[in-house]
Design a protein that fits this description.
InterPro entries: GTP-CH-I_C/QueF, NADPH_dep_7-cyano-7-deazaG_red, QueF, QueF_type1. The chain is of the alpha+beta class and about 160 residues long. It is built from 3 helices and 6 strands.
Length: about 160
């Protein structure tokens, strides 16, 4: 079953891509998971995320960690990059941004499991690090998500450089 990935994605390799400056989940593209018979994690580390505070309009900066166990579909990385960029002028609280990302990626891929952890740089002496996850309903991943949520930060990092 060999077929071209070019038929599945439109943004990869396209040099005339528009960088949207406000939140747009329609940018996301998916492609077939050729290994859906196996459980495995796919992880993205996104150290240049920015959005805007909805009250002050000031920029918020974060590293976003996205980890998921694909089902039949996977997110294409260039579309993910453009999607994350689309938050650049979007005014929303940190927690809302992370929840929107999980919702959008679940809608796109219907993954077995997904988690997103936003680690925001401090403003006013406080950093906010929302963690959101989802496990496919009525599967073992639903229970996995609950356990992972309850234990996600049992060993917090030492933060002395943010």
């Amino acid at each position: 079953m060999s077929h071209n990935r070019e038929n599945e994605v439109n943004l990869l390799g396209n040099i005339n891509v528009e960088y949207k400056m406000d939140y747009d989940p329609t940018i996301l593209e998916a492609f077939e998971n050729r290994h859906s018979y196996r459980d495995y994690f796919v992880k993205f580390n996104c150290p240049e995320f920015t959005s805007l505070c909805p009250i002050t309009g000031q920029p918020d900066f974060a590293t976003i960690y996205i980890s998921y166990i694909p089902n039949e579909k996977m997110v294409e990385s260039k579309s993910l990059k453009l999607y994350l960029f689309s938050f650049r002028n979007h005014g929303d609280f940190h927690e809302d941004c992370m929840n929107k990302m999980v919702n959008d990626l679940v809608e796109l891929m219907d993954p077995r499991y997904i988690e997103i952890w936003g680690k925001f740089t401090p403003r006013g002496g406080i950093s906010i690090d929302p963690y959101v996850n989802y496990g496919k309903k009525e599967t073992k991943w639903e229970a996995f998500a609950e356990q992972r949520l309850l234990q996600h930060d049992l060993y917090p990092e030492t933060i002395n450089h943010r």
